[in-house]
Amino acid sequence: MKILVTGGAGFIGGNFVQYMVNEYPEDMIINLDNLTYAGNLETLKSVEDKPNYKFIKGDIADREFIFDLFEKERPDVVINFAAESHVDRSIEDPEIFVRTNVLGTTTLLDASKTYGVKRYHQVSTDEVYGDLPLDRPDLFFTEETPLHTSSPYSSSKAAADLFVQAYHRTYGLPTTISRCSNNYGPYQFPEKLIPLMISRALADESLPVYGNGANVRDWLHVLDHCKAIDLIIRKGKEGEVYNVGGHNERTNLEVVKTILKALGKPESLITYVEDRKGHDQRYAIDPAKLENELGWEPEYNFDTGIAQTIDWYLNNRDWWENILSGDYQNYFQKMYVDK
Ligand code: NAD
Ligand code: DAU
């Protein structure tokens, strides 16, 4: 099989590409990525010389480029990870989120339809369901939960999901969608909560917690997400949506305190800052469909997963220190210092 993975130089796509190249030497994995601020080829060092791996630089929203690529490569399967993924950036500047996440997706769908791909998989998010109240721990997102987005990011992802479903119903394109909860693990860009807090704590810098830190996220190790996607593209039913999550709810404050404890740093580093606009309260996934129909179950528990992740950041300082010395510094200055 020839599998076109978009966004394979990012956090989840990068972990997925490494997993697939090693797991399926008989398949060809093509990584298409535009190398935005979040794309980093250093993540792919361990597979870059493998015969079943190829990198192509390009923009999923560039129609001519994408059609040329499909004409030349004729992929059997397309898995779309490529996206603008950070909620705070979408609040500052929504336009690029529409271009990449919506137009990029429809461009890939059109090319997939034209060239008859056997499976188009869209990597989506639990954020399309909006949020749940903190005082109703009995509620979870199922695949039937209505789309009810809060941020420009989640709105762009929901729009993309609706186009995927339209291409299935209208044109019969064989699609699947996965909607996953918050991922953690190696190679996550240090603007996201966990790597941001690890890198700042190591430098004895303040840890900016939005609002009162009581918001809840449902954390899943990135490799459990990768294995779920692998299962869905092989065994998932066309036209279906699958929720992915491991019942691992934590408040942001619990996560930050876990990191501080593991690093032996004081809680006095925690600084409460202005809340995120429209901040979603709680995400919580019900993964019963994926578990019951496809037999998926997560392998990591959060306590060992987070400990291993912290170790990874300690042992791979070059990877994230190179990022922090570049453009991200200007972004951090604008978001947290100049405000
Ligand atoms: P990321 O920001 O780390 O990586 C995104 C990648 O997409 C980068 O390599 C970037 O260069 C590439 N990209 C951006 N615009 C592009 C374009 N126009 N053309 C080609 N490539 C482009 O994101 P991530 O956290 O790895 O998320 C990957 C996907 O998973 C996204 O679709 C996101 O919505 C979804 N998702 C993320 C999480 C999470 O917790 N991070 C959870 C659920 C779903
Ligand atoms: O749920 C899946 C989503 O998870 C993905 O679709 C998104 O791509 C991914 O970025 C993530 O979104 P979140 O907004 O939940 O992740 P983030 O790491 O930005 O924030 C996690 C929580 O931590 C959130 O409640 C906001 C809070 N936070 C975040 C940052 C960056 C802070 O308190 N301080 C911070 O500095």
List descriptors.
single chain; Rossmann fold; 7-stranded parallel β-sheet; 3-stranded mixed β-sheet; 12 strands; 43% helix; globular; binds 2'deoxy-thymidine-5'-diphospho-alpha-D-glucose; dTDP-glucose 4,6-dehydratase; lyase; NAD(P)-bd_dom
- Percent helix among the residues? 40-55%
What's the tally of helices? 12
User: For the CA atoms, what is the radius of gyration?
Assistant: 19 Å
Q: How many β-strand runs? A: 12
Strand and helix order: EHEEHEHHEHEEHEEHEEHEHHHH
Q: Return the CATH class.
A: Alpha Beta
In the residues, how many domains can be counted?
1
According to CATH, the fold-level topology is Rossmann fold
Write down the overall mean pLDDT: 97
> What can be said about the biggest beta sheet?
7 strands, parallel
How are the strands of the largest sheet arranged?
3-2-1-4-5-6-10
Unreliable stretches covering 5 or more consecutive residues: none
Main structural class: alpha/beta
